[in-house]
Specification:
alpha+beta; Serine Threonine Protein Phosphatase 5, Tetratricopeptide repeat; five-stranded antiparallel sheet
Length: about 300
């Protein structure tokens, strides 16, 4: 496993814009290096947001981290990109099983099971057994759903409570302004998500007097991502992943975000550069989650 990770890391280092990030992220996941796997997958998806298999890899990482909501979001995205994506249907079937939605789990697993896949067949058998007994199922951990027997089929006194789903902000201005608040650490920090036409998608940006200048900043940033891409291409440096500018009054970091958008994070001049980069990574995760919800 270590040799495989080292080889894949070398492949990605030679060509950062390649799809080598997918097998690398999955190898890291299988090795239990979930934080590193998550970073590799997120950075790869920034460059390749429309690759269904990449969203499947990220979903598996989220599932292994115990975050089934985000895992489901990524598998749903994979299906949007490729409605016939079998692994995504399988993953969503396991998520439905965990949530107690047996009917949906049975539909999804029926669509992907094959005679030569005993794991999926076993999971489908468990789901159908629970459906026939009509009792709530206490599901096993996601990593072992396919290999465990269903719980006892004694009637329950009342149906299982519906699962709690944490909703990210809806796509309206009042909520979109606060998408990045959990990722920031101080009043001197701001994050703004801008589309390719220079329009504000989410976040806010205030000038030193506290006035909201997000629309003005967004308009000025229109085309920045395209210019950066052209500059990197002319220099032969591959795809650009981030940019950091230290000015007199602030430190500003930028990175390309999904769907052709641009993410900008700013902090006071006294903020360590390393912290600004960390804030950018946090904000990018929020941006990806939010865009997946509202796209």
């Amino acid at each position: 496993m270590a040799d495989e990770i080292r080889r894949l890391s070398d492949d990605l280092a030679r060509d950062p814009s390649s799809l080598a990030f997918m097998p690398l992220a999955d190898a890291l996941r299988r090795a239990g290096q979930l934080d590193v796997a998550l970073r590799v997958a997120l950075r790869g998806l920034d460059r390749h947001p429309y690759v269904a298999d990449a969203h499947d890899v990220l979903a598996r990482i989220h599932a292994d981290r115990g975050d089934l909501e985000r895992a489901a979001d990524e598998w749903e995205m994979a299906l949007r990109l490729n409605p016939r994506h079998g692994p995504a249907r399988l993953g969503l079937g396991f998520v439905d099983f965990r949530r107690g939605d047996l009917e949906s789990a049975e539909r999804r697993l029926s669509a992907v099971t094959t005679d030569d896949d005993p794991g999926v067949a076993a999971a489908l058998t468990h789901v159908r057994s629970a459906l026939s007994a009509r009792v709530p199922v206490q599901p096993p951990p996601v990593e072992s759903v396919a290999g465990e027997a269903p719980p006892d089929t004694a009637p329950a006194s009342k149906p299982a409570a519906p699962p709690t789903v944490i909703e990210l902000p809806a796509p309206d201005p009042s909520k979109a302004r606060h998408v990045f608040a959990p990722a920031l650490e101080g009043s001197d920090q701001a994050a703004l998500l801008v589309d390719g036409d220079g329009l504000v998608l989410a976040g806010s940006y205030a000038d030193p007097d506290g006035r909201d200048v997000a629309e003005i900043v967004a308009a000025e940033l229109a085309g920045v991502s395209g210019e950066a891409e052209r500059a990197m291409r002319h220099l032969g440096l591959g795809a650009w992943t981030s940019m950091l500018v230290e000015a007199d009054r602030a430190v500003v970091a930028m990175t390309p975000a999904p769907l052709g958008s641009l993410l900008v994070v700013s902090a006071s001049r006294q903020t360590p550069v390393g912290l600004v980069r960390l804030l950018l990574d946090r904000a990018l995760t929020r941006a990806r989650d939010w865009l997946a919800r509202v796209a």
